[in-house]
Design goal:
Strand order of the largest sheet: 5-8-2-1-11-13-14-12
Number of strands: 14
Order of helices and strands: HEHEHEEHEEEHEEEHEEHHEHE
Shape: globular
Helix content: 40-55%
Low-confidence stretches: none
CATH architecture: 3-Layer(aba) Sandwich
Strand content: 15-25%
CATH superfamily: Acetylglutamate kinase-like
Largest sheet: 8 strands, mixed
CATH class: Alpha Beta
Structural class: alpha/beta
C-alpha cells in the first residue's frame, strides 16, 4: 500500500533539517568507538553500523574503533583465566594478551568488516600493530600497580588510516598497540579512539557505551561538561570504574580541540541523533577554549 503523503512529507522534512549538519561535517573525519551493549546483540550492532555507512555516503569519513571487553572476559574464563581490573583497565598477562588478540583481531574486527559490507559499506580492518599505527609503552595503574601488557599510546602514525579513508573505505581499528620492545599491548579502546581523533584532526569523537552519559553527584545527566567539571567528577570519584577511561578519553580529545561525546549506543540511531540534530544526546565534553 502506498505510504500516505503526509508521512512522506515528514520523512523529507527530516532530511532537510539534517542538511546543515551534513554540510558542517562533510569531508570531516569522525572517530566512533563502538562498545558496551551496542556490540552485544547483532541487531543493535548492525543499527550502529548502518548509521556509520550512511555517514560515509553523505560525505563524512568515519573511523570505527572497537574493544571487546565482555568477549575477552568470557573466553578468558573458559580458559581458566580470571579477569582482573584496575582503574577500569584489564590487567593483562601474557596469556590474557593472546586471548585479547584472538578475540579482537580474529573475531570482532572481521565480523564488523563483514557486517559493514553486508550493509552497503566498504571497510577494512587493522589493529594498532599494523603500520604500525599505534606505538605504545607499558602503563601502570593510578597507584603504580603493574598492569602487565597494558599500553599507553606514545605515538600515532595516521598514514595507514588516511590511505584507507582516501580510498573511500571505513577503517575498523582493533585496540592493540605495538610496544617499542616489539611486544603486543592491550590498549583501552576509548583511549585509542581519543588518540586517533587527535592525530587525525577529527571533527568529532563519539564514544558509544551502555549508559546515557556522565552523571553528576546528584545522579543527574550532564548534557555538557567543561574539561574542568569533568576532571572534578573523576577526582571526586563520582565518575569511577569503567567510566573513568571514557571521561579521560574525552578530556584528551578536548585538550586538542576535538568535541567528544559519550552517548548511549543502545539508543536507536544514536550517532545520527548526536551528529544531525540540534539537541543531540548524552554528554558532550567541550574542547579547551570553547566559548562559555
Amino acid at each position: 500500500m502506498t505510504e500516505p503523503l503526509d508521512e512522506r512529507v515528514r520523512r523529507a522534512q527530516v532530511l532537510v533539517e539534517a542538511l546543515p549538519y551534513i554540510r558542517r561535517f562533510h569531508g570531516q573525519i569522525l572517530v566512533i568507538k563502538l562498545g558496551g551493549a551496542a556490540m552485544e546483540a547483532a541487531e543493535s550492532r548492525d543499527a550502529v553500523l548502518q548509521d556509520v555507512v550512511l555517514l560515509r555516503y553523505v560525505g563524512m569519513r568515519p573511523v570505527l574503533v572497537h574493544g571487546g571487553g565482555p568477549a575477552i572476559s568470557h573466553l578468558s574464563r573458559q580458559l581458566g583465566l580470571e579477569p582482573r581490573f584496575v582503574d577500569g583497565l584489564r590487567v593483562t598477562d601474557a596469556a590474557t594478551m593472546e586471548v585479547a588478540k584472538m578475540v579482537l583481531t580474529g573475531k570482532i574486527t572481521p565480523d564488523l568488516v563483514a557486517a559493514l559490507h553486508r550493509l552497503g559499506g566498504r571497510a577494512m580492518g587493522l589493529s594498532g600493530e599494523d603500520g604500525p599505527t599505534l606505538l605504545v609503552r607499558p602503563r601502570t595503574g593510578s597507584g603504580g600497580q603493574d598492569l602487565g601488557f597494558v599500553g599507553e599510546v606514545v605515538q600515532v602514525n595516521p598514514d595507514p588510516l588516511l590511505a584507507l579513508l582516501d580510498q573511500g573505505l571505513i577503517p575498523v581499528v582493533a585496540s592493540i598497540g605495538l610496544g617499542y620492545d616489539g611486544q603486543s599491548y592491550n590498549v583501552n579502546a576509548d583511549t585509542v579512539a581519543a588518540e586517533l581523533a587527535v592525530a587525525l584532526g577529527a571533527g568529532k569523537l563519539l564514544l558509544l557505551t551502555d549508559v546515557e552519559g556522565v552523571r553528576d553527584a546528584d545522579d543527574a545527566l550532564c548534557s555538557v561538561l567543561s574539561p574542568a567539571a569533568a576532571q572534578a567528577l573523576v577526582q571526586a570519584r563520582v565518575v569511577r570504574d569503567g567510566m573513568v577511561p571514557k571521561v579521560e578519553a574525552a578530556l584528551r580529545a578536548a585538550a586538542a580541540g576535538v568535541r567528544a561525546h559519550i552517548i548511549d549506543g543502545r539508543q536507536p540511531h544514536a550517532a545520527l541523533l548526536e551528529l544531525l540534530t540540534e539537541e543531540g544526546i548524552g554528554t558532550m565534553v567541550e574542547p579547551v577554549g570553547a566559548p562559555t
